[in-house]
Amino acid sequence: MQIRDIISHHYFDLDAQEIYYVCDTKLPTVKITIEKMIQDYGLIEVFDDVVGRIDKHKLYSKIF
Q1: Residue 64 has pLDDT above 50, yes or no
Q2: Residue 23 to residues 27, 30, 54, 63, Cα–Cα distance (Å)
Q3: Among 23, 44, 47, 56, which residue's Cβ finds the most Cβ atoms within 10 Å?
């Protein structure tokens, strides 16, 4: 079973502490990998645009 399938269809069986552990320990490595891919493929402008949109959304959601 893939993680998406488990989260989508078996969410009552999820262990919140395990999800937190995975996010806390694995996401920093994923972030580094994604940042390297962005640099390697010259996608920094696309990344900056997406991050800018996300930041604006966070700002708007805090205001409203």
Answers
A1: no
A2: 5, 10, 20, 28
A3: 47
Query: Residue 20 carries which side chain, given as an amino acid letter?
Result: Y
For 1, the token pair is 């079973």
- Please state whether the predicted TM-score (pTM) of the whole model is above 0.85: no
Report how far Cα 49 is from the mean position of its chain's Cα atoms. Answer: 16
In sequence order, the 6+-apart residues with CB closer than 8 A to the CB of 43 are 37
Q: Are the CB atoms for 36 and 42 separated by under 8 Å?
A: no
pLDDT, one tens digit per residue, over 15-62 is: 888 888 888 898 889 888 888 888 888 777 777 777 777 665 665 555
The amino acid sitting at 32 is I
**Residue found under tokens 């604006």:** 56
Token digits of residue 43: 């996608």
